[in-house]
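Worked example (supplementary).
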Amino acid sequence: MAHTVPSWTDERAVSRRAVVGLRECRVRWRSATAAWLRARDAMDRAFAQPLQVPALARVAHVSPAHFSRQFRSTFGETPHRYLQRRRVERAMELLRETDRPVTEICFDVGFNSLGTFSRTFGAIVGEPPTAYRARFTGNGVALRIPACGAMAWLRPAG
Amino acid sequence: MLKRISHSFIHVLDQDAALDFYVGKLGMVVHTDADLGVMRFLTVNLPEQPDVELVLMLPGPPAYDDATAAQIRELVAKGAAGGGVIFETDDCRATYERLLTAGVEFTQEPTERFYGTDCALRDPFGNPIRFTQPPDGPVVVPPVGELETQR
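After joint prediction of all chains, the assembly is encoded as:
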């Protein structure tokens, strides 16, 4: 049941510093970082669409040049690299869990050419898409974890 | 013997804005709103679960020095603070539509999974929130080749 404890402010000494600190928290909570996170969420949501830094910069209410620089300083990698890892993570699942052709998967996750896909996949995962698939196909290995965990933890390291 | 979890904690960056969201939008209710002088002890619960409280904590002195509080705020805003809540719902899509109308921005639309239908959003500060509608029957882990491929 909801209940409210009477204020202790009158009875107890409250350090001035604590009160000032609380007040500062209240007015300063909207940090610019929230805007980069919002833009990063937009990339995760629409991973197969072409990377449009100007559009993402609009989401974050900053100029495109400022956006890429600030995104990198906040999350440790460029928007382009972040999106590549998201797409490769999606491709890894499709390779593991379906028997669809590599070319189809490449376009489905947002790459424009098989060459770029294979090069990017190889650089991030350490082996070509077909070799990665072969390691999983037929050996009964399957990863069954909720989507939020997959997105965060199955994303290949930078 | 430990019996159950009664409280869990999450950092918020503004307790009034947190109430607007957790109570005004998600439909939780205020359990305790106590001005302790040095801090405001604020907890909410689901109407159907009055004995499980979510504590909405504002990072700041005297619990955390200014620099530490600033780091916490930055991590929350980055979505990297580690806190978060997963709710169960009896109707994922209807809840999604209601919240969408209320102006909530989602990070993932309702999607069918082997463990139910779920979707994702963030609270106004960056903490991840999900709500899941479990399947009618038991959760059946799909065999290789039949896993849904969108998320």
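Two points are worth noting when inspecting this output. Chain A touches chain B through 47 residues (CB under 8 Å). The first helix of chain A runs from residue 16 to 28.
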